[in-house]
Amino acid sequence: MIVDLDPVTKDNWRALTKLSVHPDQREFVADVTYYLAMCAYGELWHPLAVTVNGQVAGFCMWAVDEDRSRWIGGVVVDESRQRQGIGRSLVTTLRDRLAAEPGTPNVALSYQPANTAARSLYLALGFVETGETEDDEVVARWTPPTS
Ligand SMILES: CC(C)(COP(=O)(O)OP(=O)(O)OC[C@H]1O[C@@H](n2cnc3c(N)ncnc32)[C@H](O)[C@@H]1OP(=O)(O)O)[C@@H](O)C(=O)NCCC(=O)NCCS
Q1: pLDDT for 80-96, tens place per residue?
Q2: Ligand 1 pocket, 121 CB below 6 A?
Q3: pLDDT tens, 8-51?
Q4: Which residue's CA lies nearest to atom 1 of ligand 1?
Q5: Which residue's CA lies nearest to atom 4 of ligand 1?
Q6: Is 116 a pocket residue for ligand 1 (Cβ < 6 Å)?
């Protein structure tokens, strides 16, 4: 299984808008269509298509904060493709890509406390809850190991 993070293009944006999550998960994320609009007009977030062997399977986006920390947001794996390791692969790849940008102190993300799937994924990847909150969400950060 090859998980890639690809640009959003004229060829894949429609497939991104068709991504959906389980009804019980809908309270945790917005529609990908909303995220795409936020990326297009909000002047903060940058979208990525998550593909598996070339097929769209998920979505994520990233941003740069005032303190230069990088943020991961809008993580969605389509309901039909969950529990296959795609979430772990995409977050690891994006975390490492963002952390490698010069001057990046850490990579941050946030999630609702009740989102146990997301929480266990992020904590397993080394993100640490900092005590910060962002709206109704808990903030966790990953700081690259010093070499
Ligand atoms: C959270 C999400 C992105 C995980 O994606 P995924 O591709 O299913 O995750 P993976 O298969 O890589 O699983 C990685 C780990 O996440 C955790 N996890 C994933 N789904 C889980 C679930 N339904 N219940 C509990 N833990 C879960 C587990 O720790 C899992 O490791 P394991 O398989 O060794 O037990 C996916 O469930 C999703 O899109 N949820 C709806 C949207 C959402 O909540 N996004 C996050 C917003 S902060």
Answers
A1: 999 999 999 999 999 99
A2: yes
A3: 999 999 999 999 999 999 999 999 999 999 999 999 999 999 99
A4: 118
A5: 87
A6: yes
Q: Whose CA is nearest to atom 27 of ligand 1?
A: 117
The CATH superfamily of 3-105 is: Gcn5-related N-acetyltransferase (GNAT) (3.40.630.30)
Cα–Cα distance between 57 and 98 in angstroms, integer?
21
In angstroms, rounded to a whole number, what is the distance separating the alpha carbons of residues 106 and 99?
7
Find the helix packing angle between 116-124 and 86-99, rounded to 10°. 50
Whether the CB of 74 sits within 6 Å of ligand 1 = no
Edge-to-edge strands, sheet with 107-111: 3-6, 46-52, 55-64, 70-77, 107-111, 137-142, 128-134
